[in-house]
Design a protein that fits this description.
Elements: E1 6-8, H1 25-35, E2 60-63, H2 74-83, E3 85-87, H3 94-103, H4 112-115, E4 117-118, E5 128-132, E6 140-145, E7 151-155, H5 158-183, H6 188-192, H7 196-208, H8 213-225, H9 228-255, H10 261-264, H11 282-296, H12 303-317, H13 319-330, E8 339-349, E9 368-369, E10 373-378, H14 383-397, E11 406-410, E12 421-425, E13 431-432, E14 436-443, E15 446-453, E16 462-464, E17 468-474, E18 480-488, E19 490-496, E20 499-502, E21 504-512, E22 523-532, E23 535-543, E24 546-554, H15 564-570, H16 579-586, E25 593-599, E26 603-607, E27 624-625, E28 652-654, E29 658-661, E30 665-670, H17 682-696, H18 701-713, H19 716-720, H20 722-729, H21 737-752, H22 769-791, H23 793-802, H24 829-839, H25 858-873, H26 877-880, H27 892-896, E31 901-902, E32 920-923
Parallel strand pairs: 7-14, 8-30, 13-31, 18-27
Antiparallel strand pairs: 1-3, 2-4, 2-32, 5-6, 6-7, 9-23, 10-22, 11-12, 11-29, 12-32, 14-15, 15-16, 16-17, 17-25, 18-19, 18-24, 19-20, 21-22, 22-23, 23-24, 25-26, 26-28
Helix pairs in contact: 1-2, 5-9, 5-11, 7-14, 8-9, 8-11, 12-13, 12-23, 15-16, 17-18, 20-21, 21-22, 22-23, 22-25
Amino acid sequence: MPRRTPRTALDRLRTSRRLPGFLKTASVCVLIAGLLSPLTQTAVAAAGATASNDYCGGQCSDILPPGENGNATLAQILLNQAFGTQPDHAEDQLGPYANLATGYPGLTDTKINTFFNDASFGVPADQVASTEKPGGRADVTIVRDKKTGVPHITGATRYGTEYGAGYAAAEDRLWMMDLFRHVGRGRLTSFAGGAAANQGLEQQFYRNAPYTEADLQAQIDNAVAKNGARGQQALADVKAYIDGVNAYIDASDSGRYFPGEYVLTGHKDAITNAGTIDHFKVTDLVALASVIGSLFGSGGGGEVDNALSLLAAQSKYGVEEGTKVWEAFRERNDPEAVLTVHNGESFPYGARPADAQGEALPDTGTVTQEPLVYDRTGSAGTAAARSTSAAAARTTLGSAKRGMSNALVVSGKYTASGHPVAVFGPQTGYFAPQLLMLQEIQGPGISARGASFAGLSMYVELGRGQDYSWSATTSGQDIIDTYAVELCQDDYHYLYHGTCTAMEKLEQKNAWKPTTADGTAEGSYTLRVWRTKYGLVDHRATVGGKKVAYTTLRSSYLHEADSIIGFQMLNDPDFVKGPKDFQSAAQHINYTFNWFYADSQHTAYYNSGDNPVRASGVDSEFPVWARPAYEWKNWDPATNTADYTPATAHPNSVDQDYYVSWNNKQAKDYTTAPWGDGSVHRGNLLDDRVKKLVAAGGVTRTELTQAMADAALADLRAEDVLPKLLKVITSSPVTDPTAAAAVSKLQAWVTAGARRTETSAGSKKYADADAIRILDAWWPLLVKAEFEPGLGSDLYTAITRSLPVDEAPSAGHGPTGSHAGSSFQYGWWSYVDKDIRAVLGESVQGGLGQKYCGGGSLTGCRDTLVSTLKQAAGLTAAQVYPGDDQCSAGDQWCADSIAQRTLGGIKHGRISWQNRPTFQQVVEYTSHR
């Protein structure tokens, strides 16, 4: 029975009332009149009680914007598009989330749940909005609370519990689940339309994880077979979950309250109800898991780009000196990098071998990117479509994955209560509906509340148990290697152990036509990937004159389903009773994540992922020959399994004084695949603040939340690099009036805290707006002027392919575009910091080997900075913020603002920029079992 009724959103967050062309007023009235009847039904209210197995003492909180309800009927979509109304619980977490940006200075423990939800187990009787027995089953109940509409699922049997979880997931995210099972198969455009964003999304993931149906089924079979009773239980849970999903599909179809997007995309008829919503099957969930694993948990790649930048360095400086220059910029193990495990313990991984073996560097000028898209017709052949494909390829093939997510965890030794405090969560972007969904699950062997990716919510993936909480950040250690496979016979055969072997062609044909939801003109294309035993072909070149295909081999490829066991363990109160159990559970997750834990007594950390044991002498930074001597140890290509580094070799810790992570370096000697783990990293924004709190002692939930929120508004460049730039400029009097005025504004901003924050809540204007504009304009100019003359254009450009110069809040993030929140993950801030300090004569550990700014002289450097600053100061806001589909040119606040990218028919307003986890917990347990 549907539980949603339209309501008017807060004016401040209301979407535009402009009516899209396809939603004519008459049709709106007719359709609303015909479809409102299902919305008037209400679920039967029932009493609920707060669970007795909750040891958090009311001190666990969470938040997940925009809202729990990610489904909307056709009538609700039309009302939203026409009048800005919102279905119940579609955006009621967006306002509190947004308000923390201006509200955190006055935060107290009693006000935390003004900006977060109470994440206690259960629902107090007076807060029960509804109960239901999904499918009429007697062994499971779904209770929803009044404030947020989160499902609290309680089962008497394991089957009933998981059936309820599936039913609730479909109630809240059916359309999005359907979208992403198609994304996982490379079929999004055929299902939802040929919009540029759809093309980019399916191309991004199909290039990374193309699978046949047999591959998907094999993942299930293998995961079950190798995990004994837990594997069998996982399969049973998945099947029960799918039964619940399909029960909701049938009920919503017959009751005609299914998501309205099915009508708008042509899959259902609004008048006759003709058309079908396909039932889910087990392999659909593996397709979903492949998307999530590829997006957030697959560190590595970029070896071809690394090879090209190394060759550029060697071309300019010679082999020996060029290699030194390249290594300096690579910062594999920078001594000044912020660390998550900061007690000095070493965890060697990915180090440069003393004598590299098997390297297969391309001949100069021979590298070409392997095409993904073939046979374009119609709108697929436009320049815009080709540009989208290029952006998707850049996002996929480089090592600079958008990691996002952060964590702040403080040991009880340094807190006011004596209990650990944690503020942590994943930064998964901003979508409508959100990729994640909230839920509580209580049943035999399961007791948890938190967030899960929709369609994979048979278990809570990030959240809390009875007396512990856990969360994750993307880690990025290298589990992807690039092999040079020597071609034979033609371009689609290669040598495998001396035998000429045919590549396997994986192919997906897509075609689309205009629909009410997506007016993109008719078009089609074929996605084609060539697969070898050494992985997927992504580039071609010659090496020493021999034609080769470069392939990428990922240790988690064909194994995305394996991680279900670790999540099952994290939800099991009989398994996780302390930090060591938590670490054991995390060891069963093969995604590259940093995992954090807190209970009333302990904190812990573990870095997960299947880190392959590489052959002696292999440098994982570069392509190597596809020969037995350079394969992973005991690698079996039939199953893509190998020997992996033991758990003790992964960065791990229990009860360190504090932990921070913002996708920074994990530990001493542990090399991650992305570039940029140097002296300035956004992890420093957390580390500096938490270190001060720990030194003072008596840390509270409020203080740790404020530290996170303050860092979320900080401009990393302004806080950690700008003072040094100004020190160079002011080393002599600034006589030029334009430069002097700019310096004055920048200094005032630094003094005020270097934050990108509104003048007041809702003003949509930045304090220190001119200074922010100047730095946004100046940064790319100064970096180029500082480094390109010394490096040369070729090397400078090559390095920027591995590490972008800047990632300001208004920057794009691949096919999803701008307005994504996450910022300052990748950039040249460490290079600028080290170089400027060297020019100033200050101590630098792990320097760049030479001075670049102004040829190394303070006077020359100052001249470079002043001239580029004057140039930046002269650029107008319209030039710095040129406008896009969301904002007019010159609107600085809007350029930074966060938009909930629509994956369905419901739209939400923009919110002010914060660099912060999407789902976030604030926890402090008071007792333990």
